[in-house]
TrEMBL record:
This is GNAT family N-acetyltransferase. PROSITE patterns: GNAT (PS51186). Residues 11-147 form the N-acetyltransferase domain. It comes from Paenibacillus hexagrammi. It comes from the Bacteria. InterPro entries: Acyl_CoA_acyltransferase, GNAT_dom.
Length: 151
């Protein structure tokens, strides 16, 4: 993995879940259905095992990552999003790199659809097809083992 060209920082935003900006970003990572966004916000508010971090560049929230990390230091990404006007600038990669640097996981996992596979593959994740799981859509498991020099 290479470093991102942007100076940005991850901050814990779980306590700010009621802010429209954060809910809008979460909406970019779930099917844009108001009920689904409300369900996701509720999950983060009630599940102490779920974490939510924002990615801030020049005092501007450009993205977020939601995840769960277990005792074996396996970090499972539950949501990741970059604001539409900030996409293509390396912020998604930066979110992953900063998460590795900050939290030192041994393994990262994400389940996604075909649309996001190339993003994960470009960072170095191994992609495994899970077959059709939901309404005929193929799902993929993206897996990245963190090497000592990465963390």
């Amino acid at each position: 993995m290479t470093d991102t060209v942007h100076e940005a920082t991850l901050i814990d935003i779980k306590s700010k879940l009621q802010e429209a900006e954060i809910q809008e970003l979460l909406g970019c990572s779930v099917f844009p259905d108001p009920d689904r966004i409300d369900e996701v916000v509720q999950e983060y508010q009630t599940d102490s095992g779920l974490s939510l971090y924002g990615y801030v560049s020049e005092d501007y929230l450009v993205g977020l990552i939601g995840f769960r990390m277990d005792e074996q230091r396996t970090l499972t990404i539950t949501h990741i999003a970059v604001k539409p006007d900030s996409r293509g600038a390396g912020f998604g990669r930066g979110i992953i790199l900063e998460t590795i640097e900050l939290l030192k996981p041994s393994l990262l996992l994400a389940e996604t659809d075909e649309e996001a596979v190339d993003f994960y593959r470009s960072i170095g994740f191994v992609i495994i097809s899970l077959g059709e799981k939901v309404s005929g859509m193929e799902r993929f498991l993206c897996r990245y083992e963190v090497e000592e020099e990465d963390s």
